[in-house]
Amino acid sequence: MPKRKYKISVIQLNLNDVAENNLKKCISWVRDAASQGAEVILLPELYSSHYFCQSEDVDNFALAEPLYSTSFIAFSELAKELGVVIIVPFFEKRMAGIYHNSAYIIDTDGTEAGLYRKMHIPDDPHFYEKFYFTPGDLGFQAIETKKGTVGTLICWDQWYPEAARITALKGAEVVFYPTAIGWHPKEKEQYGENQYGAWMNVMKGHAVANGVFVAAANRIGLEKYLEGTEGIQFWGASFIAGPQGEILAQASHDKEEILIAEVDLDLQENVRQNWPFFRDRRIDAFGDITKRAIDK
Q1: What's a BP term from Gene Ontology annotated to this protein (predicted)?
Q2: Structural domain boundaries, residue 278
Q3: Which residues, other chains included, contact 221 with Cβ-Cβ below 8 Å and sequence gap of 6+?
């Protein structure tokens, strides 16, 4: 019988450092999470470097790594040693000229349970991701691990209900969102509360609409490495929500933290029995959702 309960964790960190130091730091924090009972552990988006997408600079492609190299080797060994599942977001070099914003799902025996490539790629001021990342081509997935069936979406994916819906329909019990999102300092006073609130509310909505657990891991700290700019102040606030959108664990805006919460599949089943949103979907009327726009 599969386990009906297991513990998940998100790790919130300042990652404004070089790859070697970020790797050592993340390994240490994963160990700490596992020692506290975490069984599936999520790191923030693009864990190995500062958030380089603040500019369009070809030199930043040197930060990418081929599949199954540094990050996979290190976290594969760690997952096997600790007997945990680790979700590792990284900058993937697929071939010359094709790069992805990706995440390994590494199982408890150190093998790859799955690979996800970010599907939705933003292009906003100081979030110039379209310059670096080719949209993912592996689709939305539910990955079976020895701890549970999980889905991974990445940052900008979090705004799309279709992504969460398909991931949940494929069987994901938890949707994990590794994230790198923050305020432009000059906008924070005027727009900051609404921006942060929208970010959290949309993911809580995905939890409710799909009867899934949702876990988001963000980074913290001011990353200001370009002359003449104010940088990005990453707002942290990582969280884990249950299948009714209830907050099970919540991090601060400015501290490095480990969050842990329990996934209870009996609770999930009960919620879906009482709120049978999947049952009542009018799939016969949803054809227009695949159109870019619905013209009059």
Answers
A1: putrescine biosynthetic process from arginine
A2: 5-290
A3: 14, 15, 16, 233, 234, 254
Which residue, among 162, 173, 157, has the nearest Cα to 261 in the 3D structure?
173
pLDDT at 2 over 90: no
Task: For residue 3, name the pLDDT band (cuts at 50, 70, 90).
Answer: confident
User: Which positions are catalytic?
Assistant: 45, 118, 155
Q: Is the pLDDT of residue 1 over 70?
A: no
10 Å CB burial of residue 236 (0-12, 13-18, 19+) is buried
Q: Residue-wise over 16-54: b if at least 16 C-beta within 10 A, else e? A: beebeebbebbeebbeebbeeebbbbbbbbbbbbbbbbb
* Cβ-based neighbours of 20, under 8 Å, separated by 6 or more: none
pTM of the model: 0.97
Alpha-carbon distance of 223 to 184, in angstroms, equals: 10
The CATH number that applies at residue 153 is 3.60.110.10
In a domain, 218, yes or no: yes
The amino acid occupying position 201 is N
- Token output for 159: 């705004």
Is the CB of residue 274 less than 8 Å from the CB of residue 211?
no
Contact of 19 with 47, CB cutoff 8 Å: no
129 belongs to a structural domain: yes
What's the total number of domains in the chain?
Answer: 1
Specify if 107 maps to a domain.
yes
The Cα-based distances of 7 to 33, 37, 213, 248, 292 in angstroms read 10, 7, 11, 12, 39
